[in-house]
Amino acid sequence: MKKKLTPFRKAALIALFLIPLLSTVSFGQDISVTATVDKNRLTLEDTLQLSIVIQGTQNTPPPELPSLPDFQITSAGTSSSTQYINTQRSVSITHNYRLTPMNTGTIVIGPARVRANGKTYSTQPITIEVIKPSSSGTIENKTAFIETALSSKKAFVGEQLVYTFRLFHRVEAKNLDLKLPFDKMWFNKEELGEPKPYTRVVNGLQYNVQELSIALFPLKKGLTEIPPAILELDLLYRTQNRSGRDPFSQLFNDPFFDRGIRTEHKVLRSQPLSVEILPLPDGAPKGYKNLIGIFKISAELGKKDLEVGDTTTLTVTVSGQGNVRDISFEVPDLKNQFKVYPDKPEFNQTIYNNQIRGEKVFKFALVPLQAGNKTLTKFSLPYFDPENAQYRLAETQPVTLNVRPSSVKEELNLVQSGQQNPPMAKPEIETLGTDILPIYTELDKFQSYGSYSSAFMGVGFGAPAILFIFSAFLIKWQKRMKYDVAYYRHRNACKNARQRFKHISEHSDSRELGREISEVLREYIGDKLNLQGRAITAKEVEVHLNKSNCETGHAERTRKLLEKCETLQYAPMTPGNTKELLVESENLIKVLEKQL
Amino acid sequence: MKYSSAIYFFLFIIMLTPAQAKASDHLSDHLSEIVRANGLYSDKHYAESAQAYETLVQKGVENGYLYYNLGNAYIRMGKIGPAILNYLHARKWIPRNENLTANLKFAIQQTKDKIEPPGTLSTPLFWINDLNFNELVGFAIGLNIVFWVNLTLWMYFRTPALKTLRNVFLCFLLLSFVSIGVKIENESNLKLGVVLAENVEVKSGRTADAVTLFQLHEGALVTVTDKHDNWLEVRLNGEQKGWVPQNSLGT
Known about the structure:
The complex is a heterodimer of chains A (596) and B (251).
Chain A: H1 7-23, E1 32-37, E2 41-43, E3 48-55, E4 71-85, E5 88-101, E6 105-109, E7 113-116, E8 119-122, E9 126-131, E10 144-150, E11 154-156, E12 161-169, E13 172-179, E14 187-191, E15 196-202, E16 205-218, E17 222-226, E18 230-238, H2 248-251, E19 261-269, E20 273-278, E21 293-301, E22 305-307, E23 312-322, E24 338-342, E25 346-352, E26 355-368, E27 372-376, E28 380-385, E29 390-395, E30 399-404, H3 454-483, H4 485-503, H5 510-529, H6 538-547, H7 552-568, H8 575-595
Parallel strand pairs in A: 2-9, 11-20, 22-30
Antiparallel strand pairs in A: 1-3, 3-5, 4-5, 6-9, 7-8, 10-12, 12-16, 13-18, 14-16, 15-16, 17-20, 18-19, 21-23, 23-26, 24-26, 25-26, 27-30, 28-29
Helix pairs in contact in A: 3-4, 4-5, 4-8, 5-7, 5-8, 6-7, 7-8
Chain B: H1 2-15, H2 18-23, H3 27-42, H4 46-58, H5 64-77, H6 80-93, H7 98-110, H8 133-157, H9 160-189, E1 191-195, E2 199-203, E3 212-217, E4 221-228, E5 231-235, E6 241-245, E7 249-250
Antiparallel strand pairs in B: 1-4, 1-7, 2-3, 4-5, 5-6
């Protein structure tokens, strides 16, 4: 039965259909199109955000961008907005693009065109200046940079070249998009495994390095250039949130927790690399099949003493550095002495020291047809050795085998007639009765009962987390002691001073004593306040102590003691006084230790 | 000082294991009582045996095999309702026990209504029905320890492998917490009841003179959905539900 719609329901339904329609229609609002960029001056390592804002409508096709050969353009999505101010409704849609500069210089982004309501709207042109990165050519203090290298600047056609790409980064890098532009007319390429991560110190700065190696095989002679590699990436900077005292804020500063991270999008470029491709010299030996590298070949026979009709396997193994995969052998011509059944070759590739190495194994099943001593023909492999720039020939050793006449008469396999016994019918077991299964009497089954206590669960779930917090603080403290020199000096200042006081003899010459005490005190204060302790004067020590919230009396006392030590250089003291001075110095350090 | 604190801390953890926390004093008494009850059962003194098992249950001994044996004793006595009820209690602790499944099935076959236990709401978390609460908690504690140890190692070494493991363990840990939550929800909301009386009339209201909707017989399984005064609201399926006196049902 059909239900009749009430007027209210009708109105609601109409509104439901109209709202999406109305959202894209402008009520006589003027349409305007503007283009904005997030910066006018950028380096080759930066990207430009171009936003085209269409006010007054949201129902337009995407803007037609001007020709921008100096930029690589990537869409960065669209966003739309609807605003109601009093009774006035305004709509807009923004198309965002990410522009990656490809060249330096002053570049004009021409007008972008938008078609709306049968009209064409254009944006104003925008002038952009693209400059080289500030420290182009050097890697000083860069957070991230890339470099590329070739194993050799000269290579023969077909010789393996190793192209190495390295990303150096001091902060975490994400969303890596690497473009390694190779001219396929010039090179064949082959990946040399996964990127290798390691760390390296450059100009005293420690970098994480991701190294990717690619084998390039030149295809034709001539001088060519490998264009710069371009890597787009996001660098993640960990921000120190000092406002909160939450100890976990630094602990979990990780993308996993999405906290304390600032992202910077970068485009890194390497230098272009030139390489000269040399042709192979004349005089290639007969049977040469463009093999370039260094190869070894060996042949091995399974059974060397067999009867006519038996089978033995001839295994030919070629291994070496170069294009082993391309090696092929014809079925050996054995002059009707053997039946030969070739097997599918097995190929294994390994990468050692950024060089492609391989091993290809050819197997032939041989069935001798005649008795007697047989010698198999040698397998030879001509190749070009690029290191010595000459052709070479690799050969197997001759293989001999003894074939005896067959001792067994061939027997027919007698086959039974096709009559089969009918399958045995599965016996059906009649159920005579049902009963329950017996009780459990093993006492060990009754030893545990009840749920875990809440204390046990609390410890089980809480203790690992508490231990983790302890460990995390310990790890952070260890790292701080390792990398934060000021902290390390501050923590060890008192210990070092006390050790040095132990070695100062109260009976030594008062001049020497004064010099040593002065040195220990200055070094202690230097360590505490992260200053170059020995170079500062007594007055400067007082100033620094006052600045560091040390009580004025102690700062003054320190200055006076240091001045006293300096005076000792010119006016010697009696041994009793020197002991007092030593004790006073030690006491002063105890007092300062509480203050600093 | 630091080392001694750590030792005391670990000793504290060891002392809190459930067996030691609950059963240290009474375990031997309980075991001797179980031996006696098993002996009575073997000697076919099923009523005395059931009484001995019941005494242990009343003392707070919750063990799957104890409930199973008690169920067997009631079956032998011809009391199908209490037998099914104890098998259901046993299933909470030993959910994968084949003998229990077989005996429960046998007991249900002996009833007039032959109602199978209803399914639970944990179809995507299929392992919940096969693990008891302690096993789920134990598994979650194990995962918790592994996760935090991994997180500590990752804090120190920061290798991609440890980071991946950290995320994997966190996912599993969260899943184990969800499993525990669903288990608790199932056991509290899907409370099963067994008809203990020979014949019980399911009423439309909480009075004896209300309309009788349908009849249930001893051993019939129902889901208890509400309780009011001395009446329980029971549900057979989506449509058949009503009220029964509390004393006619075991939960």
